[in-house]
């Protein structure tokens, strides 16, 4: 006798999830991983199986497969296997967002150095040097401030949890 599959989940927040996915896609996040990620935010506690994600999003299993592979690679979601289920489920890794943000500091620093090198090659063109300088300064600012913002977030979250 095999374990009985639970009833299919009721999908909540579909419209809001699609709008949020469109927004993160507009700023450069891949479309299907964005849609899967936003669907998983609204998923029940046990997450969604690949088939449930495909159903919720109205896409093929192959589209979901590629999206979850991408999201696992960037360590935003994980696959959970349980012996009482025939299918694996996917869930968002808790607290992954601010870890991703702070890990970009070295990338911002390297990017700033490359951008400055672009500007340094313009001996006569002050406008190009100025653009490069300002952009590099912005990325260095982000690298410096991101850990501070994460610390502020952790303090804020801890205080909020104490008052709940």
Query: What count of helical segments does DSSP give?
Result: 7
Given as residue ranges, the uncertain stretches (5+ residues, pLDDT < 50) are none
* Main beta sheet strand tally, sense and closure: 3 strands, antiparallel
The separation of the N and C termini measures 44 Å
Q: How many domains comprise the coordinates?
A: 2
Which strand-content bin applies to the residues?
5-15%
Strand order of the largest sheet: 1-3-2
Short description:
The chain has 164 residues and is mostly helical. Helices cover 65% and strands 6% of the residues.
Explained architecture:
This protein has 164 residues and is mostly helical. 65% of the residues lie in helices and 6% in strands. It is built from 7 helices and 3 strands. Strands 1-3-2 form a 3-stranded antiparallel sheet. The radius of gyration is 21 Å and the shape is elongated.
Structural descriptors:
164 residues, mainly alpha, Arc Repressor Mutant, subunit A, 3 strands, 6% strand, elongated
Question: Secondary structure elements and their pairing?
Answer:
Blueprint (H helix, E strand, L loop, with lengths): L13 H13 L4 H11 L6 E2 H8 L3 H13 L3 E4 L8 E4 L3 H7 L2 H16 L5 H38 L1
Antiparallel strand pairs: 1-3, 2-3
Helix pairs in contact: 1-2, 2-4, 3-4, 5-7, 6-7
